[in-house]
Amino acid sequence: MAMTRASVVGGSGYTGGELLRLIEGHPELELGQATSRSKERRTVANTHPNLRGATDERFVHPDDLEPTDVLFTATPHGYTKEQLPELQELADVVVDLSGDYRLDDPAAAEEWYGEHPNTELLEEFVYGVPELHREEMKDAELIASAGCNATAGILALHPLVEHDLVDPRVVLDVKTSSSAGGAAASTASHHAERSRVVRPYAPTSHRHQAEIEQETNLDVDITVHAIEMVRGLSVTAHSYASDSLEEKDLYKAYRGTYGDEPFVRVVKSRRGSYRYPEPKVTEGTNYADVGFAVDDTGDGFTRVVSFSALDNMMKGAAGQAVQCMNIALGFPETAGLEFQGMHPV
Amino acid sequence: MSTAECPVCDAEVEPAWEVERGEIIDCGDCGAELEVMDADPLDLEEAPELEEDWGE
């Protein structure tokens, strides 16, 4: 049976590298091309050393991109905004991992990501969180894979929305890792500066909040900290309910929403060292772990604390993009994504 | 084998072996340790929690 050819635009970045790793291990895919301006003609494995022995491909210039079955675009925000019409000509399915086509509303897209020359294409994209858009994703040709913080926030909050348990205003505290900043170095990412920080780098606003609001219809306030992790992120969301809630109500809601999901695990345990979602448990996997706690204040409202943890490069980017592609092309949803992670890490 | 609801999270608990009164089993969903109050029909209560240091 013929393999499906998948190429990656922006293959030298961290997310691009994860896509290449997943393509190499996918039972239905073969790697077409990986593009990079800065690494043109150099071996993929030289940039992504974990792929030594897995591929002898070399990066090509984006202008040399050939037609393919599937195209993953792992480029900085702004690239596909301009280039999508041309890229679309080259592939049956495009999965864009940037923020350029995630927002449905043209005004919101321009508010958060600047002027957009192809706003008419926004409505053609399916938002790339399978747990919310699986049916629309089947046979989709354009998918906007969701942001890492957004995915974690949406998955933490979705059961509360679906079961109408909380008031609409929520506050998200996000702790994120250095790889979320991409492969390009900056003064702030210099080891001496970045190591051991607990840096509030987005204290009152982050672009991903627009995605969370779009998908949950909640009013989201967000604070993002950069902390001492290479991969992974953790979301703690605080919401309030006018009604009294018990933990059993939350168990029922989270189980009801995610009971059949292959990549969302409800983590709330009475015992052990990992009682709530913990990012390092998800490293290298496509899992998002979600959990919750209830604080019944006794003064007329209940605080619900929701947690989510995932690998920002996987369920927060490349893994989720492959999951979306699996659905779009009719492959088993878990194909190429079965890794369970490691313990201890 | 009879089943019972976990008193903590309402998950269905179905022991894979014959349990006896007084035995401690755990819930596969929430990890609660449950004492078998009666084996047939199965009746479970949350076992008293020992204070434990889990890393903080």
Q: Could you give a quick summary of the protein structure above?
A:
With 345 residues, chain A is an alpha/beta fold.
Structural summary, described in words:
- The complex is a heterodimer of chains A (345) and B (56).
- Chain A has 345 residues and is of the alpha/beta class.
- Chain A has 2 domains: 4-145 and 317-329, NAD(P)-binding Rossmann-like Domain (Rossmann fold), CATH 3.40.50; 149-310, Dihydrodipicolinate Reductase, domain 2 (2-Layer Sandwich).
- Chain A has helices at 14-25, 44-47, 79-88, 106-113, 130-137, 148-162, 191-194, 208-216, 247-258, 318-329, and strands spanning 4-9, 29-35, 68-73, 91-96, 126-128, 142-145, 169-176, 199-202, 219-226, 233-241, 264-266, 288-296, 302-310.
- In chain A, helix 1 (14-25) crosses helix 10 (318-329), helix 6 runs parallel beside helix 8 (208-216) and helix 6 packs across helix 9.
- Chain A is globular and about 65 Å long.
- The two termini of chain A are 38 Å apart.
- The model of chain A has no long low-confidence stretch (mean pLDDT 96).
- Chain B is mainly beta and 56 residues long.
- Chain B has one domain (4-46): Single Sheet (Rubrerythrin, domain 2).
- In chain B, 0% of the residues lie in helices and 34% in strands.
- In chain B, the strands form 2 sheets. In chain B, strands 3-4-5 form a 3-stranded antiparallel beta sheet, with no helix packed on it. A two-stranded antiparallel ribbon of chain B has the order 1-2.
- The mean pLDDT of chain B is 88.
- Chains A and B meet through helix 9 of A and loops of B.
Lay out the secondary structure:
The complex is a heterodimer of chains A (345) and B (56).
Chain A: E1 4-9, H1 14-25, E2 29-35, H2 44-47, E3 68-73, H3 79-88, E4 91-96, H4 106-113, E5 126-128, H5 130-137, E6 142-145, H6 148-162, E7 169-176, H7 191-194, E8 199-202, H8 208-216, E9 219-226, E10 233-241, H9 247-258, E11 264-266, E12 288-296, E13 302-310, H10 318-329
Parallel strand pairs in A: 1-2, 1-3, 3-4, 4-6, 5-6, 7-9, 11-12
Antiparallel strand pairs in A: 7-10, 8-9, 10-13, 12-13
Helix pairs in contact in A: 1-10, 6-8, 6-9
Chain B: E1 4-5, E2 12-13, E3 24-26, E4 33-39, E5 42-46
